[in-house]
Design goal:
Elements lengths: L4 E9 L2 H6 L3 H11 L5 E10 L8 H12 L3 E4 L2 H4 L3 H9 L4 E3 L7 H12 L1 H22 L8 H37 L5 H10 L13 H12 L1
Parallel strand pairs: 1-2, 1-3, 3-4
Length: about 230
């Protein structure tokens, strides 16, 4: 049995009148439904923003991104211009750690889709990559000519790369913990005192663990709460 993919839908209209009448909103819903209409998509939540495209403070989008991270779902938007025309905003979206799909750009998914979105967000990022590639090529050419580049340079770079990787992993773990904080608070308010009870509740709610597993354990809940206290 095929596993359904999870999606969080985000819609935006420019005026409150459009939001109340459905003008523009209905077309966006239809575009998203058509894009996901293969029977293997499950829209677990929808968020609608009534906001100007020039503004970057969008609470509904923040809620949509949180829900997408929480449920390990992709964010789906009807059109690129419904999300933003701001380069800086798209860069922040990329840093949110959420897979983004656009109904008018079906190829925006996976590594290739992320690359395309990065180009839309900032051509400078590609230039930085090209500079890095040229630098590595120059170093390789120098080494081929017999030029010494430093005996322990590679080791220091590897150590630095590992440290950077650990920092990035810790950052993502903390973001995940803060996404879960409101859910844990609600469960505590409902009288669930033990980590075991909370683990069972999170499993029943269909919220995956940090490693994408379907079942939670008491130690995993304790780890999340420890991160929130740190």
């Amino acid at each position: 049995m095929a596993v359904k993919r999870r999606f969080v839908a985000y819609y935006r209209v420019s005026t409150r009148k459009q939001g109340q009448s459905g003008l523009g909103l209905d077309a966006q819903r239809a575009a998203v439904a058509n894009h996901l209409g293969d029977g293997l998509a499950n829209v677990i939540a929808e968020f609608t923003e009534v906001e100007s495209g020039r503004r970057n403070d969008r609470p509904a989008l923040d809620e949509a991104l949180t829900a997408a991270r929480l449920h390990r779902a992709a964010l789906v938007v009807a059109k690129v211009d419904r999300l933003t025309r701001s380069v800086g905003f798209l860069e922040r979206l990329l840093e949110a750690g959420v897979d983004v799909r656009f109904a008018d750009l079906p190829a925006i998914e996976g590594p290739t889709g992320r690359f395309m979105l990065q180009q839309m967000a900032a051509v400078a990022e590609l230039e930085a990559g090209l500079i890095s590639a040229r630098t590595k090529a120059a170093l390789a050419a120098a080494k081929a000519r017999g030029q010494r580049l430093g005996g322990h340079r590679g080791g220091r770079l590897n150590t630095q790369a590992r440290a950077t990787g650990r920092e990035e992993q810790a950052k993502r773990a903390l973001i995940r913990a803060h996404d879960l904080a409101p859910v844990l608070k609600q469960l505590r308010a409902r009288g669930m005192e033990s980590n075991t009870a909370i683990a069972r509740a999170l499993t029943a709610m269909g919220i995956p663990t940090a490693r994408g597993r379907d079942r939670w354990s008491a130690p995993a809940v304790a780890l999340i709460e420890a991160r929130l206290r740190s």
